[in-house]
Design goal:
By secondary structure, the chain is an alpha/beta fold. It is about 35% helix and about 20% strand.
Length: about 325
């Protein structure tokens, strides 16, 4: 029998109808494009598109084929107030700050930080690292941390780990998810994050690059590592990648920042604005509330809901105070 995924739509839109907390059989996941295709039996139709954001649905399990699927209402979700959501998110980011400081101190060897793009994951980690390296900067010495973004070969990974192998050094992999797919890179990381007293890493192949850079063919890694990722570990479908991620999770502390729904993201924006994110713009409190309200009103049409979005809108308001809304509609909305 053919098997289909069952999903719970937390909040979505089908034509003029709001879809909230309902179960469906899913035919196609196009959430990156702002919709999923589900069985529309509930509306007397076949395949229908439900508009939503990537974090506004949960994949529950495999279930029967769509023609045998009986629509069932999901269990009522536990409703949080805005204050409770902001407290929950704020607590997660406070823990992130504490864990980053512990990683800098060498008390924690490795940490994985998971969350959707544009909620302040990287900002929180780099802020703590910059504060810890303030005296390094004043003395004109190289910082004891490095933030790596984008692609990195296994050989480059080995050399970079050597560069930051001393105690007190922190290596941050920010959105370097291809490392998780590569067997050789993963084995190097597993050795660097081993739970034993010594974490010996070896490169058992000749390399002109390593000789040129003075990198030995083996060394003990004594630094710490932070992974920052947008990957939703709970909903990875590739069994190979699941195994790779499980191997890393077993060696790392894991923080899910729990900013998943559109409502979570908007409240996170309010939280960061209240903390002073827009102070440099010189906006009044009324101006800042107007920005947030603009995002709330047009959330269904925005290409993304993130801190980057509010910065783009603030830039427009600063540049063109009379026409910023019209320009935002053209440049930031679907």
């Amino acid at each position: 029998m053919a098997m289909k995924l069952q999903v719970r739509v937390i909040r979505g839109q089908y034509k003029d109808e709001t879809v909230a907390n309902k179960l469906f059989t899913m035919f196609e996941d196009c959430s990156e494009n702002g919709y999923i295709v589900v069985d529309g039996k509930n509306w007397g139709k076949g395949k229908v598109r439900v508009k939503l954001n990537a974090g506004d649905f949960d994949v529950l399990s495999t279930g029967p084929a769509a023609d045998e699927y009986e629509f069932v209402a999901a269990e009522p979700a536990v409703t949080e107030t805005d204050e409770e959501i902001m407290a929950r998110i704020g607590a997660r980011f406070e823990i992130l700050d504490e864990m980053t400081r512990a990683t800098i101190a060498g008390d924690i060897r490795a940490m994985i930080v998971q969350g959707p793009p544009g909620v302040g994951k990287s900002y929180g980690v780099t802020t703590q690292l910059e504060q810890a390296n303030l005296f390094q900067d004043i003395a004109g010495r190289a910082p004891k941390y490095e933030v790596i973004k984008g692609a990195l070969t296994p050989l480059g990974l080995y050399a970079t780990l050597y560069k930051h192998s001393d105690p007190g050094h922190v290596l941050v992999f920010d959105d370097c998810d291809m490392l998780f797919y590569d067997d050789l890179s993963l084995n190097i990381l597993k050795a660097a994050l081993d739970s034993g007293k010594k974490r010996r890493i070896c490169w058992n192949a000749d390399s002109h690059m390593l000789r040129r850079e003075g990198v030995p063919d083996s060394f003990d890694f004594k630094g710490s590592v932070i992974f920052i990722t947008n990957l939703d570990f709970a909903h990875i479908r590739s069994s190979k990648l699941q195994d790779h991620l499980a191997a890393l999770q077993s060696r790392c502390h894991f923080i899910d920042l729990s900013v998943n729904s559109r409502r979570d993201k908007i409240l996170r924006i309010e939280q960061v604005i209240d903390a002073g994110m827009l102070n440099e713009y010189g906006f009044s409190e009324v101006d800042q509330k107007e920005l947030v309200q603009f995002v709330k009103t047009n959330a269904d049409r925005m290409r993304e809901i993130s801190l980057r979005l509010i910065i783009k809108i603030a830039d427009l308001k600063k540049i063109m105070p009379l026409t910023w809304k019209r320009t935002a509609e053209v440049t930031l909305m679907k």
